[in-house]
Specification:
By secondary structure, the chain is of the alpha/beta class. About 25% of the residues lie in helices and about 30% in strands. It has a single domain, classed as P-loop containing nucleotide triphosphate hydrolases (Rossmann fold). It has 4 helices and 7 strands.
Length: about 150
């Protein structure tokens, strides 16, 4: 069963805390597909997800690398930036499909650019800037996320 959950955060710290809660719920094979404008907070949220997975907060935007890997004792987190991906051939060069076969969780920024290539059960997180520090975050995922809130 898929649910939709809307949450308002009022600071980067609150967005990170929400990410921590999400990260604590992730399992191998999960793919988070972020949607949101430049500067909305996708990388900030990913920092929280990494913390929630026990991987630390050394998360940076993979804008130029396309892919960053965060590994530790548990489940790895693979962080993609699809901003410059415009074709299926481009997507293939990122190793996207190979990573999805690993036991890892994936986070995809600019997922709109690969909408038709995302796994069917992707967790869609939309981040909208509604004020200087205020974000409206909409999570479309399975029942694991029903209890997440402020």
């Amino acid at each position: 069963m898929y649910i939709t959950k809307e949450i308002i955060t009022r600071s980067a710290e609150e967005t990170i805390k929400l990410g921590e809660k999400i990260g604590g719920l992730l399992k191998g094979g999960d793919c988070i597909a972020f949607r949101g404008d430049l500067g909305a907070g996708k990388t900030t949220m990913t920092r929280g997800i990494s913390l929630g997975m026990g991987l630390g907060d050394e998360v940076t935007s993979p804008t130029f690398a396309l892919v960053n890997e965060y590994r530790g004792e548990g489940l790895p987190l693979i962080h993609f930036d699809m901003y410059r991906i415009t074709s299926a051939a481009d997507l293939e060069t990122t190793g996207f499909y190979d990573y999805l076969e690993e036991n890892c969780a994936a986070v995809v920024e600019w997922s709109e650019n690969i909408r038709d290539c995302l796994p069917q059960n992707s967790i869609i997180i939309t981040i909208e800037r509604t004020g200087d520090n205020v974000r409206k975050i909409t999570i479309n995922g399975d029942e694991r996320f029903a209890g997440i809130g402020n």
